[in-house]
Amino acid sequence: GENVGLHLPTLSVQEGDNSIINCAYSNSASDYFIWYKQESGKGPQFIIDIRSNMDKRQGQRVTVLLNKTVKHLSLQIAATQPGDSAVYFCAESWGANNLFFGTGTRLTVIP
Amino acid sequence: NAGVTQTPKFRILKIGQSMTLQCTQDMNHNYMYWYRQDPGMGLKLIYYSVGAGITDKGEVPNGYNVSRSTTEDFPLRLELAAPSQTSVYFCASSYDGVGQPQHFGDGTRLSIL
C-alpha cells in the first residue's frame, strides 16, 4: 500500500496553545482521510474525517485541513489540554475496503 | 453499547503454539478488520471481512487465518506462533467499508517467546 507519512514524530506544546499535526500522503487517488487519537493501552479513537471534495472540516476544538495540490493533511487542536496528550495517526483510503495508516505523531501537552 | 470487544487483553505464547484472538461487535456493522501494530509503528491490515461468510487478505496475512460465521464475531487464528508475531492486535468494524470511520477495540497484546 501507499505510505502515509508524518513530518514530525513528536510534538510538545504548552497547555492552552494550539497544536498542529501534519501528515503527507503519497497516493493522489486517495479520497477519504481520517485522524485517530490513540492513548496508551487503548485502541485508536476516531477524531475527525474529511473527503477529497472538501478542503476543511471542523469539529469540536479540532479542524482538519486537506491540501490536495501538495498531498498534505493537517490536524489542528485548539486550546490544547493535558487530555489531548496521545499519539495521533492519519489514515487514507482510495475506494478500497481498508485504511492505510501512518506511523503516528506523539503529542505531549506541558501543563 | 460495548462497541468492539477483544479478548484476551494479554497473552504469552510459546513458539509453535496456537491460539485464537476473539473479537465481537454489537453495532451491527457489516465490515470487520484485524490489524497489528508493532512498537512505534502504525497499523497494518491482516485480514478483513465485508460480511458474514466473506473474508479477504490484507497487507500482512501470512501466519494468520480468520472466519466470519456471524455478523458480530470475527476471530483471528494463529496456527504456529512465531516471534515475529509478537505485536498488539486490534480489531475494528465499520458499517460500510468505503468512506466510513472504523471503530476499534482496545487490543490484545501478544508476546511469543
Description:
The complex is a heterodimer of chains A (111) and B (113). Chain A contains no helices and eleven strands. Chain A has strands at residues 4-5, 10-14, 19-25, 32-38, 45-51, 56-58, 62-67, 72-77, 86-93, 100-101, 105-110. The mean pLDDT of chain A is 89. With 113 residues, chain B is mostly beta strands. Chain B is built from no helices and eleven strands. Chain B has strands at 4-7, 10-13, 19-25, 31-37, 43-51, 54-57, 64-66, 76-78, 87-94, 103-104, 108-112. In chain B, the strands form two sheets. In chain B, strands 2, 4, 5, 6, 9, 10 and 11 form a seven-stranded mixed sheet that branches. In chain B, a hairpin with an 8-residue loop joins strand 9 and strand 10 (103-104). The mean pLDDT of chain B is 94. The interface between A and B is medium-sized, with 26 and 26 residues.
In short, what is this structure?
Chain A is an all-beta fold and 111 residues long. Chain A contains no helices and eleven strands. The mean pLDDT of chain A is 89.
Salient structural properties:
heterodimer, A: 111 residues, mainly beta, five-stranded antiparallel sheet, 53% strand, B: 113 residues, seven-stranded mixed sheet
Low-pLDDT stretches of chain A:
none
Quaternary organization = heterodimer
Mean pLDDT of chain B, as a whole number? Answer: 94
Query: Helical stretch count of chain B?
Result: 0
Beginning-to-end CA distance, first to last residue of chain B: 36 Å
pLDDT < 50 runs, ≥5 residues of chain B: none
